[in-house]
Each structure stands twice: as C-alpha cells, then as structure tokens.
Amino acid sequence: MPGVLMLDKDYNNMSKFLNRILGMPVDLQNRLFKYFTDTLNAIITQAKKSGRFDMGILDLGTAGENVKRVKLFTFLRKHATGVATTELHIVHVERGMSWQEAMERWSELSGSKEGFYLSHQIRNGKQTAILAVAVDGGKPSKKEEKSKKEQFYTIYRPNTGLQLRQETLAELEKKYKKVSSDDAESHWTQQYDSSVTTCSHAYWRGNCKNVTLGMDCEVGLRRRTYNVLAGSVLSVWSRVENVLAAKTGHNTKMQVVRLRTGEGVKIVGTLIPKSCVEALKEALSSDAEKTDEQTF
Predict the structure, then answer these.
(1) Environment class of residue 66 by beta-carbon count within 10 Å: exposed (0-12), middle (13-18) or buried (19+)?
(2) Which of 197, 230, 264 is the last residue of a domain?
(3) Do the Cβ atoms of 153 and 166 come closer than 8 Å?
(4) Global confidence as pTM
(5) N or C terminus: which one in the chain shows less Cβ crowding within 10 Å?
(6) Which of 275, 231, 234, 228 is nearest to 256 (CA)?
(7) Residue 151: exposed, middle, or buried by beta-carbon count in 10 A (0-12, 13-18, 19+)?
(8) Rounded-to-integer distance, Cα 95 and Cα 76, Å
(9) Which residues touch 100 (CB under 8 Å, ≥6 apart)?
(10) What are the helix (H) ranges across 62-160?
(11) Distance spanning both ends of the chain, measured CA to CA
(12) Where does the Strawberry notch helicase C domain start and stop, copy by copy (predicted)?
C-alpha cells in the first residue's frame, strides 16, 4: 500500500540491521548507528533506574525508593580456615508518595495545567488520583513555541510514586480531569494507605485471584519486602539450593540484588523467595556456632 510503512518480520534482528546499513554511504551509516546506540543507552539508563536492567543484578534504591532494613539474621559457622558469617537481611522498599509529600510538590507548581487530576473511569466507587508536573516547569521555551513541540508531564501516583513514562497533555486529559487538591485528597490518601498491604487487583476489583489461591501478589504495592542472603554465601550454597528446590522447584532463577539503605548500608546478595525464608533459617541454624537476630 503506497505511503503505508510496515515493519519486517525480522525488524528486531541485529544481524540484519547491521548488514543492511552496509549498503548506505559511510556518513549515513555512522549517523544511523549513533542514533541506535544513543537510543540503546537511554533505554538501559531507564531500565537501571527502575531496577529492570537484566544483567543478573537488580538495583534497589536507584529510582528514588526509600530502602530500609528491618531485620538481620546472622549465622556464624566454622570452616577449615576460620569462621565466616552468613547474613539474611529483611528489607522494606517504599516507593509511594504520601499526601504531605504530594502537597509539598504541588505548592511549587506554577503551570496552569499542572496539579492534581482524577480519572474519568470510576471503579467500585474509586477514582485514580495523580499529580502532574510539567517537565520544564510549565513554561515552554521559545524554541518549543516556535516548533509547537508538545508539552510533556511527569506523573506521580500515591502507591508507586514517580512514573518513568511521561505523558503529553492530550494523553493526560484523555484519561483524567483536573481537580482541586481538596477533591483529590480522599482518593489519594485512600489508595496510599491501602497500598501498604493490598495489591492493585484487590483494591480496584475487591479481590485478587493470586491472594485467593494463597499466593503473594505485589502488583501496585507501595511497600515491598525483599529477603536478601549475603555474606559468606558460597560456603552454604548447596544448602540454599536444596531449600529453594524443595519449596519452589528446580526451575527457580537466582536473582542477585544490590541495594543501599537510607542509613547508607550497602548490601549485595541473593534474593530469597518469601516461601523459603523460614526453611532456610532452620537449615542455616542447624549447625551454626552462633545465631543472632536484630530488629531495626
């Protein structure tokens, strides 16, 4: 169809992409490849901030989350060359925005379209409240006015805080209507308070299939709990594998996590599923010279 562009079935094949640009002038090859690498770097940077960059390490606390260690279990054991300590850290990661924080951010805004919005859609008598902040402070530059570049907005939600994806005013007004802070307060605080323990499915629908089946669901929670095994892990690795295999099956993927708490404590270790924590504590305590538990 003339004028209609469609992607090849192998549009995301790197080999084909590189082979095809070989037929272009060298200058164009360089510019096109630079555009590709700049885009890739931007995607990787965004993924790192959100903790979704898959290089075997999950970063927590890099996208503005509040990381707090709440418990620490230590297991001291002897080995051929001395003693080693294995640690199990219980960590809470807070990523929401309280009403007080939202009001402080709102008080700094000056743009006519900035502020609180409520969703047009109403589910079970509830509406989504958000805070929209213009990327450039609500005042388009002369260059933007000349090119009629669309204004973008950063979105904050009560349960998940700052959103990585920015929205245009058209996208914003399609789903939401601008309201006063008084109108938004009850909707904001209700979702903020509920999202400590209630997932988005249960909040909007009244129930969650996973929770009904006895499983955990963390979709939309503002506070997530991570169990991180650190310290001398290799010395007890076979024991860890046995516990994970018994509780979750042999196909469980091991995830390395790196985090920094609000107190400045750096932790690098392996994520342990919630269902395995008690069994692992028992296994590590069984032959430990000394065990200790601290609450923060």
Answers:
(1) middle
(2) 197
(3) yes
(4) 0.63
(5) N
(6) 228
(7) buried
(8) 33
(9) none
(10) 99-106, 142-147
(11) 65
(12) 7-59
Q: Cα separation of 98 and 219, whole Å?
A: 18
Residue at token pair 């009560």? 158
Residues in the chain: 296
Residue 37 lies in a domain: no
Domain span including residue 281: 57-95+222-295
Q: What pLDDT sits at residue 230?
A: 93
- Which mean pLDDT values do the consecutive 10-residue runs of the chain (296 residues) have? 78 82 89 89 78 65 76 88 89 90 94 94 92 76 53 92 87 94 95 92 90 83 90 87 77 76 86 89 90 91
pLDDT given at position 13: 82
Is residue 225 within 8 A of residue 274, CB to CB? The reply is: yes
Cβ atoms of 114 and 139 within 8 Å: the answer is no
Is residue 155 in some structural domain? yes
CB-CB contact of 93 with 171 (8 Å): no
Strands of the 66-79 sheet, one edge to the other:
57-60, 256-260, 266-271, 223-231, 82-94, 66-79, 290-295
User: Which two three-digit tokens encode residue 82?
Assistant: 């001395």
Six token digits for residue 167: 């929205």
**182 within a domain of the structure (yes/no):** yes
Look at residue 206 and tell me if it is in a domain.
no
pLDDT for 137: 59
* Coil/strand/helix, residue 68: strand
